[in-house]
Structures
1.
Amino acid sequence: MTGCTLCPRSCGTDRSKGQGFCGAPRDVRIARVGLHEWEEPCISYGKGSGTIFFSGCNLKCVFCQNHEISRGLKGRDVDVQTLAGEMLGLKDMGASNINLVTPTHYADRIVEALDIVKDSLGIPVIWNTSGYESVETLRRMRGYVDVYLPDIKYFSPEYSKKYSGAEDYFERASAALEEMMSQCGYASFDGEGHLKKGVMVRHLVLPSLYRDSVEILGYLSEKYDASRFAVSLMCQYFPTPACAAFPEINRRLTTLEYEKVVRYARDKGFAVGFLQERTSAREEYVPKFDY
């Protein structure tokens, strides 16, 4: 790929010769393929969600729990045919869906792989993303993605710059969310509560940043119908070694901080979505990246 502009960085790197901001090579690099039981229940039903973890990332979150693949780029390079084969292999294993985790910087290759399998896949495709997306790239995914699962990490540009190196994060993420909603709409569940179509926003509550979480939920409730909008509020945060430079987030989230955000979400009328158990904030829930 020459002149990469797949994400908001638009760094223009010739990936046939080198790696851009995300660190991604020309071909797809995969860190893990397998059934995952620890997503939201509406995603990990049956034998589990068929996850494909991609290496590299266009954010530099200091608290990233998957830092060995997002920054360390652990994984193995594969061609499009192999990627397509992994998708079909997950279906054969009984996966409830194909869950593409941090896929943005491989969007063009993923489209090629989905073109190969689209007539035989028959299960939902999930775009599981940090939310830092280019609207132009998302438009290419129209008709390929059934469920968008974006993070909305920050409202404040100060925080997004400080902790993730992206001052324009909310500007980009909110525009991306509009495009996702235009494609797939509000979350749609089958009779057993399985997510089959639509958008569900994830938000990881960070220590000391309660008010930023409130700002995000306030925005979403004003922009969309809160009673129909699916939100997953997560409390799985634990500090990584890189957080030592940021004392205010170099600790676990307290129960009080999380409950404040939950109460605000209920007060704003959010009725669809998921809350996370506090016991999920443990390193052993981070998958082994052993592809």
Note: The chain has eight helices and ten strands.
2.
Amino acid sequence: MTHTGGLYIHIPFCRQKCRYCDFASFAGVENQIDDYLAALDREASLYAGHLFSTLYIGGGTPSLLSAAQLEKLLQIVNRHFGPITAFTESTLEANPESISSEKLHVLKQAGLNRLSLGLQSTDDATLQRIGRVHNVQTFLRAFEDARQAGFDNVSVDLIAGLPGQTEEKFLEGLQQTVALQPEHISVYGLQVEEGTPFYAEGVKADEDLLRRELEKTHELLQEAGYNHYEISNFARPGRESKHNTNYWQNGAYLGLGSAAASYQNGVRRSNVSSLQEYLRRMQAGESVTDFSEHLAGKAAEGEKIMLGIRQLAGVHLSAAQQQLFAREIEDLCVRGLVERNGDLLKLTLEGMFLANQAFMAFVGPFE
């Protein structure tokens, strides 16, 4: 049997919502985790026997589950999709305050081979300001525990452009992170989304600061031996995220859980994001799909290009894509956001910092 595509499992529970977060996650409802796992088991059974190359357990905060609950979750995967060890890459997102040696042992024993740790900042005052539960010391202990447990593929998340954090402080934090020698580092630029506490407070991202920090990140991490392979992602050679690369290459994936998205056979769909509604529908044996669309024609080709140019290596355009988007590509070249070499299209350094402007050209409605 061939293993293709990715399996994503969404765990929507958090100890407390971060002030910048607009993901489908909920605080203070940990008493519903067992019901949620039972619902996940039912949803997974609908796809039993499908084999996937990669597994990604994201959130929310998957590490909020107890060791026994994590074990139960991994057994669900085992039962319906084969052993965890059969995935070429299997990742769990963890927050420093809720991951423990016991939980790490459970994950390692099950065969999970990659950990993504949310650090966000190495400044305690900033962590408190953005609503994180952990401090830097807790993170350092969690990182050390992961190494002790045998995880040799650890990714660390940071956020650039956080309010109240100077450029010097950010770069200092980046260097501290590099000193730990994680295999992978993600650096996301702050985006203040509607519906978040930051938006309600009127917090605005300082675009100039963000730009300077991201430029320095690009230089500093490449000098430190990390390959800048996607707009926000840097990896030691061979440690690029296989699961996420599948997304950017327009590969198929199945998402399980509330708010999880899937893309299979040209159909993109997402599950209902309300935790209660997801549980209710699963218990009633109803479909949990909330939205579904079949992309075709220019919209489908535009999506492939948009995802592809997220990767710094760029994307090879088909003859049809070159024809469909000739005007848009020409315009982006003139604006200095993309460069073209034969059928290879990639973002320029400038385009990387203004990526959303470049992406808009490949998203409908088209003129």
Note: DSSP finds 15 helices and 17 strands in the chain.
3.
Amino acid sequence: MALNYIWIGFFVLTFVFALSETIFNGNFDVWSQIMSSSFDSAKTAFELSLGLTGVLSLWMGIMKIGEKGGVIPFFGKMVSPLFSRLFPGIPKGHPAMGSIFMNISANMLGLDNAATPLGLKAMQNMQDLNTKKDTATDAMLMFLVLNASGLVLIPIGIMTYRAACGAANPTDVFVPILIATFVATLVGIIGLCLKQRIKIFDRVIVSWLLGIAAVVVGIVWFFSTLTPEQMQRYSSFIANIILFGVIILFIGAGLKNKINVYENFIEGAKDGFKTAVMIIPYLVAILVAIGMFRASGAMGMITGGIAEFVHWLGFDAQWVEALPTALMKPLSGTGSRGMMVDVINQFGVDSFVARIAGCIQGSTDTTFYILAVYFGSVGIKHTRYAVPFALMADIVGSITGICVAYFFFG
């Protein structure tokens, strides 16, 4: 129901802002801009789904080999002590455990293309256990919030964008992003544990969280010893070699267990194709609403109002220039990247505002895209409290990104 109200809200706000533009500013072109945006967004949604088809077919095929070859169940057993507590509705040893682990690992490495199909596979595994097929389970909600908070150990994308824009040190946002995304994920986990009455101070959960914190500190220390060029080269190399290693591992396990690797790949790839087709309507629905909202000028009016309010309070308002990136982040990954690039073009890639935008961009993932794709792939209509908790992680991540940017660069 939450997505239903939010979707309707986008159209209502779009109409209100467009009407005010026409009445108060005499802007009659806004209506044609809105309609053009609706067609462009629908086309983008289809092209995005079409682009996902190949990636989904590839990774769903690889996942099928890993499942039949015993690798996914092995990963499930490896993380079972933690996941059996965070996902109490999933039986120990169930394939969903391994799929969740693979998805989260891909996200942590900044491998978005691989993370999405792995996440869809995890949703399908969890849907097999779901007794109410149209309603999200507690496990699904925990999984969605973990994805929305988007813990990324190696933010390859942000560093690549900054390098392409000519930054003197493209990797200078690495540590701030790592801190922001870790805080967002931690808050998301704690919030859902409290909501679902999971014992957050359980010895296993605390040990794993401290272990992850230690890994974060270790990565920060290691990369701080590298030059910017080495940091970018090593981060890309490590992520890609791990990804390729997973493919070889899965195929090797399949051969060892004497399964027909090729036929299992084809079977999984077919599921990937079906999933890509299934999510098209959900992507069209959410992207069209967001595109029309942007075209109405609502985003500019909101950020302008916030900037005036901050100035009136007497606080530093430099961060407000990066606010469109934060507001767009939950709605559209492409849109938020566009906002970040717009800030870079306007103020310069090495400006304080551009660094804030980079920290915000890397702090969390795209909430409504994740909700639309993941829930849509298994036909979930009742998302329960997924939206508020995912947005909570988004807000915390953005605020933390702004704060750490001030600490490191202000």
Note: The first helix runs from residue 2 to 25.
